[in-house]
Amino acid sequence: MSKIFQPLTLRGVTLKNRIVMAPMLMYAGQDDGQVNDLHLAHYAARALGGVGLITSEVVAVQPQGRISHTDLGLWHDQQIEGLARLAQLIHTCGAKCTLQLAHAGRKSMVEGDIFAPSAIPHSAQQRTPVALDLTQIEGIIQAFADAAQRAIDTGFDCLEIHAAHGYLIHEFLSPLSNTREDRYGGCEENRNRLLLEIVAAVRQVWPQDRPLIVRLSAEDKAGAGSNHIEVTARLAASLKALGVDLLGISAGGLAPTFDGAIVPGYQVPYAAQIRNEVGIPVGCNGSITSSELVESILFSESADLVYIGRELLRNPFWLLGVARNAGVEPALAIPTYARATGPYERGH
Ligand SMILES: Cc1cc2nc3c(=O)[nH]c(=O)nc-3n(C[C@H](O)[C@H](O)[C@H](O)COP(=O)(O)O)c2cc1C
Questions:
Q1: Which CATH number does the domain housing residue 65 bear?
Q2: pTM for the whole thing?
Q3: Residue of 25, 247, 270, 312 with the most ligand 1 atoms within 8 Å of its CB, for mutation
Q4: 58: Cβ below 6 Å to ligand 1?
Q5: What is the spatial distance between Cα 300 and Cα 72, in angstroms, rounded to a whole number?
Q6: CB of 24 closer than 6 A to ligand 1?
Q7: Is the CB–ligand 1 distance for residue 310 below 6 Å?
Q8: What is the pLDDT of residues 257-287, one digit of tens each?
Q9: Does residue 333 form part of some domain?
């Protein structure tokens, strides 16, 4: 009996199984933020491999919000067409898809000024960011809403807001990177404000039948003064109240080093705690490569979905091996692939 191959419905979207391809930036684009053939081939391969949901890599809402000049973007109408082609291709290959919207904040490596809540660099090697003023913050909230509006026309099934891993929104959430003294800094309520305002603005334009996901770092893991799980659980409850359908629970990224052990499933307890305390569906991730671990996460109701990252870079067809071991015939866009999951039948 496998839980991996059981469907899950979020709003109007039904996933055929519980495996999600984690968002992973491929640095494969050009300066125009547009989808190219490499993106199409990369995502199509993982969709053919049978995962239920593919998450795109970061898609920047502003040019200065890119991690690098090779990122995808959705700050301009011209960027809709390529993403629409990508969503259509993923659907043809049998998976649903999530578009991950982000602003890189002080971790941006693009030329020119970079921006953050406060003028504190990510590390000694990186540039000092410009502290955003209130008009610029308003502009960023609007940029997320505008990108969400464009995302409707791309045909992506779900939208994800990247609020983890030390990028702009996470920089606002943490007291280590946010030392502002206005309504976006100081107390927990003020530090959470940017994310909550972005989610409210996005939920207003994003269709009611399409799920909204937020990715969070449950803990900063950046040493003394870090945000802890208790703070994130309270934030999760506020996100649920705003109509967020699933939280992707990760950790760290605020500092160059991770203050903790990295072992298979090391972030699962955070996901389980938020799921149980807040009563919201969660996805978990982090060095998960074995189907036994995935089954145990699902059976123990620690998470509803399991995000797999680097294992799917190594092996886009990882799930076919899992199906074979579980004796399950997975739903595949090319049914002939199932011949690789059952006993070898001679004939050709
Ligand atoms: C090459 C690479 C690029 C990544 N890019 C993103 C990204 O665009 N957005 C994001 O939220 N996480 C990103 N991540 C983090 C992954 O989604 C995931 O959390 C991390 O790889 C841990 O999961 P894993 O052990 O299954 O690989 C990236 C990771 C890798 C290895």
A1: 3.20.20.70
A2: 0.98
A3: 25
A4: yes
A5: 37
A6: yes
A7: yes
A8: 999 999 999 999 999 999 999 999 999 999 9
A9: yes
